Amino acid sequence: MPHAKYDRLIAQCAALAPVPTAVVHPCDAASLAGALQAVGPEARLRRIAGEEGLDISHCRLIDAPHSHASADTGVALVRTSEAAALMKGSLHTDELMAAVVHRETGIRTARRISHVFIMDVPTYPKLLFITDAAVNITPTLDDKVDIVANAIELAQALGVAVPKVAILSAIETVSAKIPSTIDAAALCKMADRGQIKGAVLDGPLAFDNAISKEAAAMKGIVSPVAGDADILLVPDLEAGNMLAKELTFLANADAAGIVLGARVPIVLTSRADSVRARLASAAVAAIYAHARQIIAAQGRPAE
Known about the structure:
The chain is α/β, with parallel strands linked by helices. It has two domains: 1-108, Cobalt-precorrin-4 Transmethylase, domain 1, CATH 3.40.1010; 110-261, Isopropylmalate Dehydrogenase. It has helices spanning 4-12, 29-32, 42-52, 67-79, 93-100, 141-157, 179-192, 207-211, 213-218, 237-250, 275-297, and strands at residues 21-24, 37-40, 60-63, 85-88, 114-120, 128-131, 164-168, 200-205, 231-233, 254-260, 266-267. The protein has a six-stranded mixed beta sheet with strand order 8-7-9-6-5-10, sandwiched between helices. A five-stranded parallel beta sheet has the order 3-2-1-4-11, sandwiched between helices. Helix 1 (4-12) crosses helix 11 (275-297) and helix 4 (67-79) runs parallel beside helix 5. The radius of gyration is 19 Å and the shape is globular. The model has no long low-confidence stretch (mean pLDDT 89).
């Protein structure tokens, strides 16, 4: 059933307490409509709300003169624990992320920041996580360790107890000519040695073998991951971005997105996002934020 996986995610939030979210510079109707705690030029926000018939009387508006100041203010709200999540408004992603990663005033952790698409693909039986398709351009092996760890934690928060991670490349065999296959082999060995926990990893796998049991069987691939992947770890941003957009525009998939590795989850919306995708992104951020609160309450380490 189309959109059923996203509908379940959104419904899951009904039982959760609201997560204070700073919507940074929502200076268009689409982003302002989802604002809970809005940071931006107050007069402009009120004008847009009036033009679009939006009731923002229940929202806290924090005046900031321009988009850079909005980003800095949103991050400051996280540092003072007034916001437990951030959502990108109509400013550029680079502006928001520059404030997030600032050495002195940002909200980085010891773990590398990365992006995860949570895809609802009508032809796939479960949610499909694709990482990283928006932040890390050419990740190193060390970067990929953090990228996959972020995705594993997210999948677990959304109810996948032991995610299956397919490490993608163009081929299924290790070749010195294709660096992504070397990275895949190293990541799998790291998982064997306990350096990556909480998931089953396999790779290198081509995309067809990762999501199709028939394709894997035809190539004689015996793997607990092949044909049943939860997480697709892509070689680089270009591959991941094209894959996510191909699924969206050719397979009618919905694509929610979230940035992890900072102190709080960050929702990166796009003007091309559907209303359902925006809602699903917010739902994922809320579920993840609550999962991290539970970990903190139990005294378990969280990066």
